[in-house]
Design goal:
The chain is of the alpha/beta class. It contains 5 helices and 11 strands, in the order E-E-H-E-E-E-H-E-E-E-E-H-E-H-E-H. It has one domain: Zn-dependent exopeptidases (Aminopeptidase, 3-Layer(aba) Sandwich). This is N-formylglutamate amidohydrolase.
Length: about 260
């Protein structure tokens, strides 16, 4: 599997002080894993990746001229947006779909997936953030995800949502700017809570005190090139405005709602 790279870094101007992250950008698997015993159709579903996010992240990175880190593997293999000790790190069942290639699993295989995929991805995120902070200022980190229009029988009304823990420095102005045009419904910690111990924002932003926000866009709105272009056009000036605020380039540690930080 030496030819399988578990991340992609989209190069940009690190001096701008902004980093984009897309944990679930891709639905790829190394050839040795086949399809994990799932039908090919499973890899076009949200259980495999965040639909539309790769295209949106690439377009925003190009428009803004900033670096981005893209997850290069399907979250069905191992979820990069989970802590190493999270029981949902490698899913046996995902939204009703049994994943035969994930159960049963020997500890050696669990450890291998951490070493070969999860950890290299997070090292890439860490290196990118460090490079963007070379001037001594904290970079603004924006994580991009997408969510399904429905959950079971519930139609999710939000067009976008911002997830966060307790550091609201970037969240409050982001919510205000998203809502300002008045043409979309924006959720605040919807459709799920953003405080998750060990996830990407916890690990790379909460612990070191870096300003950040996680933005979710509803998948049906960015499922094609036209939708991606429209949302990049909406988000780019908002991200640029956020990046001009001095308070979003300061290190400040906030306590996590999940409990004390490790060590």
């Amino acid at each position: 599997m030496q030819d399988f790279i578990p991340f992609e870094i989209v190069e940009g101007d690190y001096d701008i002080g902004m980093v984009l992250i897309a944990d679930h950008a891709m639905n790829r698997l190394p050839a040795a894993y086949g399809s994990l015993g799932l039908p090919e159709s499973a890899f076009r579903r949200h259980i495999a990746f965040d639909i539309g996010i790769e295209g949106l992240t690439r377009r925003l990175a190009a428009r803004l001229g900033v670096p981005a880190v893209l997850g290069g593997f399907s979250r069905l293999l191992i979820d990069p947006n989970r802590g190493e000790d999270d029981p949902t790190l490698i899913m046996k069942i995902s939204d009703g779909a049994i994943v035969p290639g994930n159960h049963p699993m020997a500890q050696d295989e669990w450890d291998f997936r951490l070493d070969a995929f999860h950890r290299p991805y997070h090292w890439a995120v860490e290196r990118t953030i460090v490079r963007a902070s070379a001037s001594g200022r904290a970079p603004l980190v924006l994580s991009l995800h997408s969510f399904t229009p429905f959950w079971k029988d519930f139609a999710r009304p939000w067009h976008a949502a911002v997830l966060w823990d307790s550091d609201g420095r970037a969240v409050t102005p982001l919510l205000d700017l998203l809502r300002q045009p008045g043409d979309i419904i924006v959720g605040d910690n919807e459709p799920y809570d953003g405080a998750l111990k060990g996830d990407t924002m916890y690990r790379h932003c909460m612990i070191p005190g870096i300003p950040h926000a996680l933005l979710e866009v509803r998948q049906d709105l960015i499922a094609d090139k036209a939708g991606i272009a429209a949302w990049a056009e909406r988000l780019a000036p908002i991200f640029q405005t956020l990046n001009t605020q001095p308070t979003l380039h300061e290190y400040r540690i906030f306590p996590s709602r999940t409990g004390p930080y490790p060590g």
